[in-house]
Amino acid sequence: MGFRSWIVPEDKVFFDLLEEESSNVANGAKVLEEMITQFDRLEERRAELKQIEHRGDEIVHQIYEKVNATFVTPIDQDDITKLASLYDDVLDFMDAAANRIVLYEIKESTEAMKQFARIVARSVAEIHAAFVAMRHRGAKEIDQRCIEVDTLENEADVILNDSVAKLFKGSDVIQIMKLKEIYEELEIVTDRCEDVSQELRDIVRRYT
């Protein structure tokens, strides 16, 4: 089956649900970026992100239910559920990073945290565009978006290495440990974004 045969399926509910999940993750990335860059209303923003994470779980559950109730799906059932699960992981790690910022009582945002937050937001925006392209624009668009996600993940790797090295030049051991863990959680979000982009590219290649 060619790629263009399944991007306009008769039953579009799966693409509706995947796009809904993607929009929800984008909302989470926005809240996380605001939390880190503005660094105010931390408890409120964490609670908001937790609600978004719960909504993500609900959407994934709907996707699983729909897959199990549908005999013929526009793409392989395992591809749909894997894609939904991988993107849910992105939201889970955003939530974990926000939790640590609050629980560790971080007093101010660092430049590294702001850089990670911007990269996360950009990565999620690229993935959302790729999800939309599944229905509207095709394989080339998805590939370009996914390449950009890979590039952003590489940038996050560099930021992690540089920022951790800078941390260990300090003398406050507890603060070093706290920030190192937060940096690592934020970098994992970009790793998970790359996992989603790779799965998207694999799906397109299988159906092209």
Short description:
The chain is built from 7 helices and no strands. With 208 residues, the chain is mainly alpha-helical. The protein has a single domain (3-207), classed as Up-down Bundle (Methane Monooxygenase Hydroxylase, Chain G, domain 1), CATH 1.20.58.
CATH class: Mainly Alpha
Q: Helix/strand/pairing class, anyone?
A: mainly alpha
CATH architecture group name:
Up-down Bundle
**Percentage of residues assigned to helices:** over 70%
Unreliable stretches (pLDDT < 50, length at least 5) are 1-10
Element string (H = helix, E = strand): HHHHHHH
- Note the overall shape: globular
CATH topology heading: Methane Monooxygenase Hydroxylase, Chain G, domain 1
Strand fraction equals under 5%
For the report, how would you describe the main beta sheet? none
Cα end-to-end separation: 7 Å
Number of domains: 1
Q: What would you report as the Rg, rounded to the nearest angstrom? A: 18 Å
> How large is the count of helical segments?
7
What is the CATH superfamily classification?
Phosphate transport system protein phou homolog 2, domain 2
Strands, total number: 0
